[in-house]
Amino acid sequence: MKKLSLIFASLLLVIGLFTSCEKSDSTDEIVVEGNAIIVNYGGYSGAKGEFSLFNEIDGTITNNYYNIKNNRDFTSNIQSLGKHNGKLYSMSNNADKIDIIDLYTFKQDASIDADIVKPRYFAAKGNKAYVSCLGNVSEWAVVANSYIAVIDLTDNTVKKFPQAGGFEGMAIVGDKLYAASYTKPEVAVFDLATEKFETPITIESQARHFAVDGDNLWVSHVSSYSIPVSSEHVGITCINTKTNTVEKTVNIPSLGGNGYIAINNDGSKVYALGNKYNADYTTTSNVVVVDTKSASIENNSLVAGGSFYGIGYNQTTDKLYVLISPSTTVKGKVQVYNTDGTLLNEKEAGIAPQHVVFY
Amino acid sequence: MGLLSNWAIPITTIINNRIMKKQQTIIKFLSTTLLIICSLYVSSQNYKTSDTITLKEVKIKGVKRHKYGVGTIIHNIDSLSKETYSNGNLADLLSNTMPIYIRKQSDSFSTITLRGTSANHTAILVNGINLNSLTLGHSNLGNIDMFLFDYADIQLGSSGAIYGTDAIGGTINLKLDNSLTNGQKLFAKTSHSSLNNHFYGVKYFTGNKKFDSKTRVFYVKNENRFKFKNLANYNFSKKQYPTEYTNNSRKENYGILQQFLYKPSLKNTFNVLAWYQRNWDQIQPSMGNNSNDGTYEKSFDEYIRLLSGYERLGSNYKFKTDIGYMKDKQIHNGNSNESISTERFIANSSLEYSLSTAQINVGINYKYIIPDVYTYPNQLDEHRTDVFFLYKQDIFNKFKYSINLRQSFVSGYKSPFTPSLGLSYTFADEDKVKKVLSLKLAKGYKIPTLNQRFWGTQGNPDIKPEKSKSVELGYNYTRAIGKSILSIILNSYYTDVDNWIMWVNKGEWIPINERKVECIGGEFFSHLKFKINTIEANFRLNYFFSSSILQESETEASNEGKQLAYTPRHNANSNLALTYNDYIFTTDITYTGERHVTGYNKTLDGFYLLNSSISKDFSFNTFILGCRLQVNNLLNKDYQSWEYYAMPGRNYNISLNIKIN
User: Fold this and answer.
1) Using CB atoms within 10 A of its CB, is residue B81 exposed (0-12), middle (13-18) or buried (19+)?
2) Among B288, B295, B599, whose Cβ lies nearest the Cβ of A43?
3) How many CA atoms lie within 13 A of B84 on its CB side?
């Protein structure tokens, strides 16, 4: 009996140990609720980009998150991060590859580097991912070697669909992929079924990023150093994706050259990063709020500061994220705001934070 | 009252913080100085205890100084080190022979950090011509090929009053032999390394008592190919880091430097210098991009430098004047539409007058600069004029002082007045011992680069010049011990660099006067020259301590109080050279301390490197054949000078040279 008790106790202990091991493994997974991944573009040399895990609920941030989870440096600049089917896809533009990271454990187990040159932004539907690639660039006003990479996510093989002029932001609405043309005043349209480019949609200046509100697709368009346009042509334009026609345009003269925008949950507001140039060679950064219904600027400076480098909107919690990057040699910040512009939280992030992905 | 007290608290805190910072600064400087005084005391003790040693045949010459740089020590690179690295570049020479941190890609882009300042704060001069790029502000030491120059010296610390812009952390002087050749001399050298690097150079000097021609030609073709463990390219299927060969690291440089001297009489000398150099470099990728040919970059540089001068030597005066033309051109990635070039027309004149115990030098330097950069405004040009006054007096051969003044004038731009004061007192000057104590107060400055003022929409024409204030205390001790000579130099310094320019993101990336940096440090140099039977030996041991702390910065506030990135606190080197008959054996050990990387995410480990060489000269009737075998990184250390840039492990270099006199 004693022996039986001993065996039973030992069994319990072993089961307990295994159970505790399982628990230990499960704590390795990220608690999804309230989390955001901040993409730090990084400096131009050394370990370069990194990720920060920010939790909106308890207000904490964990920097160097990739290194912590993978025990090595990331070693590429990161343009942006896509999320799809339990995976994160990092557009590691400096290393010309896409790094695939598990959404929950944040461990990397694969990368795609064949036929990927200067990846910028990501969109996905089903088993296909679409990545805008600049290709090798000799002239930024031409961007002759750009293409859209279509990735079969079942085996990570890549098919290239070239079109000169460069692509930046991407969005999928229905069965069409919309790609912001980097050098032309237009939005490229790519049919997902036929995998062919269709007639592009003309807008007022070179396109940058999208914000989707049902069938309405807002695109930012900017002036750049390579292709300057007058400020009256800078702003955001709404495209009706049912007809692929321009519905309305809002002029935002201060919209920055990166054209970063974000949209709220009900699509009533678009938030854009603006810059105001002062006479003393300093610049003030602003978050400009556009009322989409009236197609007018509601607030030219909901949030003002310096060195704004990225923007995001958490549609689950209705919080506005502003990413601040003073230089590529110092750590930046993430700031979280209420929609009335009240600062709720501020944390130090990595170098040059510029993109945020919400869980 | 409540409001007042609310304000008073932060103001008091700020004042207290500033007072505390100043106190800390004073404590640091005093402690470094105290170390020097202790060492001075110890060396005096040694002197007293070994007072019985007398040797008249060894005459102490003391430490070389700039004529007007009292309190500033010039460190000559000795001829052996110079010859050892003559097939290499300035980065190789300095990193192997001095405790100076050179941030290097293996054989490509290399920049210098002197006394905790940036690469933009070191002037690099050839016969008075500043080689630093007018657009970028610094020089790539990896492309300054040492074969062209006959002498090199380093002057540490601010010397803006003597050398003008850039001389904040120090000045490197590369010099040419200006003596007349009696007959003909030929020196040819070739070297080949296990990195598949190849060098060929010829110097031909010919002349008589009036006319002299010196021709120097070199050609470098470096593959710079070596194996390394790629720590940025993890193989997910094999679960290991791969071993790879370096890619895109080739270099092909060639240049010719021609000097003519004409000396019709003892008093008059005419000289002409013509220098053409062409550098083609593949820019070594970081480890992450080693196999990513889409990211490979290359650079093409071309330099034309012409200088013509006249010198008249009177009984108590020397008059010098020269005019010149320089063109620097750079094309990145073969894109000739975006070339960057600057042309300079220069004219300099100076008059030096000698009194019984004093010397005065007054002069004017003029530059007319025409940049041609695709992002600059059209028809941009600039006039720069410097006037200077240098004065030195020697009282009773014991007490020396110098007062130097310089004012720079830049068209449409305000530049600072730059004075310096140097004092030295020799309190022992005998056949067997010499002891000198020195003090220097100096200002330095840097005129902002053309890019910082005129680049596209981001350049800021009103940006202020970077400026420095420094104080330096030095002690030199030289003595003869038998047939040996021991010299020790101890320096401590404090330098405050203000208006340090950084490119920051204000919506657009713009340059602003961003940093205030406090550099405090100490330097120890020792050299023992001795003889064991027929073996002549030279042993050097040097150590630099450099604390370079960010004091104020709006955009880098989180880094305030920290050591600047890529600025090691500790650097040391040791060199032993043994000469036996026609054999020379050398060994160099260098130590580079740990460094913060940009962004302060981590530190790079410190590392030791050991290089060793053996050479022998074979004398024949009409010529001398020299052979040298050199092993670099003998211990095969895996290290990074610049984060994630591969550096070579153990490698070999064999060189042959012929001297015909």
Assistant:
1) buried
2) B599
3) 27
Q: Tell me whether residue A18 is exposed, middle or buried, using C-beta atoms within 10 angstroms of its C-beta: 0 to 12, 13 to 18, 19 or more.
A: exposed
ipTM (interface predicted TM)? 0.77
Residue A136 in contact with partner chain B when CB distance is under 8 A: yes
Q: Which residues of A touch B334 (CB under 8 A)?
A: 138
Closest CA of chain B from A287, distance in Å = 12
Cα–Cα–Cα angle for A68, A69, A73, rounded to 5 degrees: 60
| Length of chain B counted residue by residue | 661
Name the band, by pLDDT with cuts 50, 70 and 90, for residue A143: very high
How far is Cα B587 from Cα B577, in angstroms, rounded to an integer?
7
Question: Are B558 and A330 within 8 A, CB to CB?
Answer: yes
Taking the C-alpha atoms of residue B519 and residue B564, their distance in angstroms, rounded to an integer, is: 10
Report chain A residues whose CB lies below 8 A from the CB of B335: 138-139
| Interface membership of A277 toward B (CB under 8 Å) | yes
Give the distance from residue A241's alpha carbon to the nearest chain B alpha carbon, in angstroms.
32
For the whole prediction, is pTM greater than 0.95? no
Token couple for A263: 């949209």
Tally of CB atoms within 10 A around B184: 12
C-alpha dist (Å) from residue B584 to B537, B615, B616, B656? 10, 5, 6, 14
Residue A102: both structure tokens together: 């598990």
User: CA B352 to CA B208: how far, in whole Å?
Assistant: 28
Residue A286 has pLDDT above 90, yes or no: yes
* Sign of the dihedral defined by the CA atoms of residues B8, B9, B13, B14, in that order: negative
**Torsions phi, psi of B601, nearest 5?**
-75, -30
CB contact under 8 A, A109 and B236: yes
Please tell me the distance from the alpha carbon of residue B589 to that of residue B574, in angstroms, as a whole number. Answer: 5
Q: Looking at residue B42, what is its pLDDT?
A: 41
- The residue behind tokens 């390795």 is A28
Q: Are strands B170-175 and B122-126 parallel, antiparallel or unpaired?
A: parallel
Contact A254, A288 (CB under 8 A): yes
Contact (CB<8Å) B505/A325: yes
Alpha carbon separation from B134 to B281, B367, B373, B378, B503 (Å, rounded): 20, 12, 11, 17, 17
Compute the half-sphere exposure of residue A347: CA atoms within 13 Å on the CB side of its CA. 20
Three-state DSSP string of B260-292: EEECCCCCEEEEEEEEEEEEEEEECCCHHHCCC
What pLDDT was estimated at residue A247? Answer: 95
Give every CB contact of residue B518 below 8 A, 6+ residues apart in sequence: B25, B494, B495, B496, B497, B547, B548, B549, B551
List the single best residue of B331, B462, B505, B550 to mutate versus A (max A Cβ within 10 A). Answer: B505
Q: Splitting chain B (661 residues) into consecutive groups of 10 residues, what average pLDDT does each group show? A: 36 46 55 49 37 34 67 82 81 91 86 95 92 94 93 92 95 93 94 96 94 97 95 90 95 97 95 97 92 87 96 95 96 88 96 94 97 92 96 92 96 92 90 91 96 90 94 94 91 96 81 94 95 92 96 86 94 95 93 87 90 94 94 96 94 96 84
Q: How far apart are the CA of A45 and the nearest CA of chain B, in angstroms?
A: 7
Nearest CA in chain B to A260: B507
Q: How far is CA A92 from the centre of its chain?
A: 12
Number of H helices, E strands in chain A: 2, 28
A153 CB neighbour count, 10 Å cutoff: 17
Kindly state the tokens that stand for B345: 């027309």
**Conformational region of residue A253, where left means phi above 0, alpha means psi within -120 to 50, and beta covers everything else:** alpha
Q: Given this model, what pLDDT does residue A1 score? A: 47
Q: To which H or E segment does residue B173 belong?
A: strand B170-175
Which amino acid is it at B523?
Answer: E
As to burial, measured by CB atoms within 10 angstroms (0-12 exposed, 13-18 middle, 19+ buried), residue B485 is: buried
